[in-house]
Structures are given as structure tokens and as C-alpha cells.
Amino acid sequence: MATVQLKAVEKTFGSIQVIKGVDFTIESGEFVVFVGPSGCGKSTLLRMIAGLESTSSGHIFIDHQDVTQVEAAERGIAMVFQTYALYPHMTVRENMGFGLKMTGTPKAEIAARTLKAAKILALEPLLERKPKQLSGGQRQRVAIGRAIVREPKVFLFDEPLSNLDAELRVAMRVEIAKLHHELGATMIYVTHDQVEAMTLADKIVVLRSGKVEQVGSPLDLYDDPDNLFVAGFIGSPS
Ligand code: ADP
Ligand code: MG
User: Fold this and answer.
1) Where in the sequence is the signal peptide annotated (predicted)?
2) What is the DSSP letter of 99?
3) Pocket of ligand 1 (CB under 6 A)
């Protein structure tokens, strides 16, 4: 578990500023959801927190340590993407353990952590299958499993359910809530699905054109939106 803090974070691509002075604090173990229109900078922010994208100015802190210049692999963060490219020639077990293998983790440790993650995600019976023998939902669970085995301090999810059909999304949403409950880890989750945001979040960060529009609990934002933009996004009638 870890706190995540952003202070005056900015990002410029060429001459275009896409993140404009973002500040917020995420408490240890919190489930925080980023919402906002396409292109408002949700993915860029996640990638900056993960260390996959540099920060043009400002600072990012994880557990009160300034990680702005720290490499991605050293930040203790795992990210789950919308397109969860699994290695087609590897089994579920191998896909889940591959990242650990690359960092030189001992085989017994990899086996133990893979089994633990498989149990959490109900993937135990599927460990010897190849990705093409799995459904979309099962593949996405493997992608989440890959993140769990790394035992990160913070999980980042970038629209992880967008490629799934409606029924499966609801089922996976429940699984993600369960996962948060079981691991107690800090999680930051991007979605454009308002129901997903309202049901999963302890706290929602509403973004618009690279700026934070409002931060609050789902109920706060619903009952007391700062403006029409937030109201429109959260779906309250005011
Ligand atoms: P979101 O995830 O909210 O849809 P993004 O973070 O992907 O938004 O993008 C925010 C803005 O930054 C968009 O205008 C996008 O075109 C731009 N952008 C993202 N990545 C790059 C990049 N590597 N180079 C140039 N512009 C980028
Ligand atoms: Mg995005």
C-alpha cells in the first residue's frame, strides 16, 4: 500500500500542453477513478505516475518519496492496459510469471506468486492453457494476474474492461472490487463508464482538458458538483 501525490504536474508534447498543473493526493489503499472526456489526459497522467512518460514539470511522490526521476521498474507500480497483449506462445502460467523471470526472481518464488494470483482470480484451472484457448474475460484476468504477481504498491488500470461486452464488464467490475478488497492495495482506475466509476471509486478525479475539475467521493460529486461539466459527467440532475 502506498500514497500517491501529484504536485503541479505538467506535460507538454512538442508545443502542446496536455497536462496543466495537476495536484491531488491519493491515500494508501484508496480506489481512485479518473474520469473525463476522450483526450483530456487520463492515460498520459497514468503513464506519468507509472514512469512510462516523463514529467515536463512538477513532482510525483509515492509514499512521500519523490519518484519524478525514478525509472518505471523502480517505482513499485504495475499497470493493466485496455489491450492486454499476452504472449500467444506461452501458457497462462508463463505469461503471468514472465515479468518476474525477467527481473531474475527465483523459480520457486515465481511459482508461488503465480499460484497465489491464480487463486485470487480463479485462474487455477486455466494455468496450462494458451491465450487463444481463453475467453476475453479470462484473458483480461490473466493481464490483471500479471500485475498481481509483481506485488506492486500501486495498481494502475487504463480502461481495462473497454474491450469486453456489457455482461462481462459487469462481472469483471465485481471481480475488480473484490480484488481491491482482498489486496487492500492503492488502485488508480481510468474509465469512461460512469456506473463503473460510481460503484468502484472511493474517490473520483474529474479531468477536463488536462486539468482537475473536481475531486471527491462519488456521493460528493453526485450531490454537490462544482459545475455543470462535473454534473454532466457524473450523471446527477443538477
Ligand atoms: P485520454 O486517455 O484522456 O483519452 P490521453 O492522455 O491519451 O487522453 O491524451 C491526452 C492528449 O495528449 C491528447 O490530445 C493526445 O492526442 C495527446 N497525446 C497523448 N500522447 C501523445 C504523444 N505521445 N505525443 C503527442 N501527443 C500525445
Ligand atoms: Mg486513454
Assistant:
1) none
2) H
3) 13, 18, 36, 38-44
Q: Which ligand is nearest to the CA of 38?
A: 1
Cα dihedral sign for 58, 83, 153, 221? positive
The grid coordinates listed for 198 are 460510481
Catalogue the E-assigned strands of 97-238. Answer: 154-158, 186-190, 203-208, 211-216
Q: Per-residue confidence of the chain (238 residues) as pLDDT tens digits?
A: 799 999 999 999 999 999 999 999 999 999 999 999 999 999 999 999 999 999 999 999 999 999 999 999 999 999 998 877 899 999 999 999 998 998 899 999 999 999 999 998 889 999 999 999 999 889 999 999 999 999 999 999 999 988 888 888 888 899 899 999 999 999 999 998 888 999 999 999 999 999 999 999 999 999 999 999 999 888 755 4
Give the number of the atom of ligand 1 that is nearest the alpha carbon of residue 37: 3
Q: How many helices (H) and strands (E) does the chain have?
A: 8, 10
The DSSP H or E segment spanning 19 is: strand 16-26
Note the ipTM here.
0.98
Cα–Cα distance list, 139 to 37, 144, 180, 187 (Å): 27, 9, 19, 20
- If you measure from the C-alpha of residue 41 to the centroid of ligand 1, how many angstroms do you get, rounded to a whole number? 6
Q: Determine the distance separating the centroid of ligand 2 and the alpha carbon of 40, expressed in angstroms.
A: 8
Cα dist. 121→66, 187, 201 in Å? 33, 17, 20
Q: Which helix (H) or strand (E) holds 37?
A: none
